[in-house]
Model the fold of this input.
Amino acid sequence: MQAISSLQTPVPTSIPSTFYRVGYAGSQTSFSPTVGFRARNIPTIIANTQQLHFYASAHFNWASNIISPFISVFADRMHAECWARGFSERNGGKECYVVAVSTAALGRGPIFLAADLIDAGVQSPMEASQHWSEYLVLYCIPVAALIDEVVVSAGL
Done:
C-alpha cells in the first residue's frame, strides 16, 4: 500500500496562515464546539492516487451517495463569503457562517489544493478557475484551530 505522502497528486509545499470554512445546516461536514469540524467519512483511509481522485471527484460533484473524507476551505475570505452568500441565495436565504481557521493548529493531516487535484485529472463540474482558493483538508479541523466566525445569509 502506498502512503498518502507518496501519491502522485502534489501536496502543497506551503499553505496560507488562515483558511475560511463555509458551514451550513445539512452539510456533510459536522461541527461540534468540543471537537471542531469533522468530515462525515472518517474511517476511509486513502492509500493510493486512484482512491484520492475518486473521493475528490465525488466531493467536487456533491455526490450525496458517496460520503466525503474531505472538508472544503478557502484561502481567500472574500471568496468564502461570496460562496456562502451565493449558497444562501440558492437555498431560500438559508443562514451560513464563515469560520476563520488557523492553519498552524491543523496538525499533520494532508491538505490538498483543489486546483492541483483538478490539474491532475480529478473531475469537477466547475472549471479549475472556480476552485482557485479552495483547499481540501482530510478528516478534521480541530476546535483549537478556529479563530473567528461571521454569519452570512442572502442579502447581507
Remarks:
- The first strand starts at residue 18 and ends at 24.
- Residues 27-152 form a domain with the Heat-Labile Enterotoxin; Chain A fold (CATH 3.90.210.10).
